[in-house]
Amino acid sequence: MMVSTKGRYALTVMVDIAKNSNGEYVPLADIARRENLSNKYLESIIAILIKGEMLISLRGKNGGYKLSREPKDYNISKILKLTEGTLAPVNCIIQDGVTCDKAATCSTLPLWTGLDRVIENYLGGITLEDIVIGNRKKMLGDYCDKCSAL
């Protein structure tokens, strides 16, 4: 599984808005400036986040974007799936099953299915709030014995 720039930037936008909104709408130009990202590219990502009901938009002088709910109510898996489509580690596995003709005889399918579950459990267990408050212990979890220096 490789998260694209679209997925990474969507998460960056969500974190930026969570950190900077204070209940107000955050202008796109402010997000782009703080994160050093292209306005144009962010527009396409924000459109996906609005369509997926992750953000609310307001046009006009005091317009911009804000979260549609509290940061604790967003899990990272859902944000990334919205932009990536799937987080499956291989093409033959989709979110609701297996799409391979050889599934019944595939000796590696249990490996990929297990990895898919680990990815989902890990990302599904981390919230936007965890990132905003810097909950490193939760983000690193038991997955990284040598990461205490991070």
Task: Explain what the structure shows.
There is one protein chain. With 150 residues, the protein is mainly alpha-helical. Helix content is 49%, strand content 8%. It is built from seven helices and four strands, in the order αααββαββααα. The chain starts with a helix and ends in a 10-residue tail after the last helix.
- Rg is 18 Å
Please count the helical segments: 7
Reported CATH architecture of the largest domain: Orthogonal Bundle
The stretches of 5 or more residues where confidence is low (pLDDT under 50) are none
Helix content: 40-55%
Total strands: the figure is: 4
What number of structural domains do the residues give?
A: 2
What is the arithmetic mean of pLDDT? 89
Shape: elongated
CATH topology title of the largest domain: Arc Repressor Mutant, subunit A
Q: Which structural category fits the helices and strands?
A: mainly alpha
Strand order in space, largest sheet: 1-2
* Main sheet characteristics: 2 strands, antiparallel
* The CATH top-level class label of the largest domain: Mainly Alpha
Distance between the termini: 23 Å
Q: How large a portion of the residues is in β-strands, by DSSP E?
A: 5-15%
Order of helices and strands: HHHEEHEEHHH
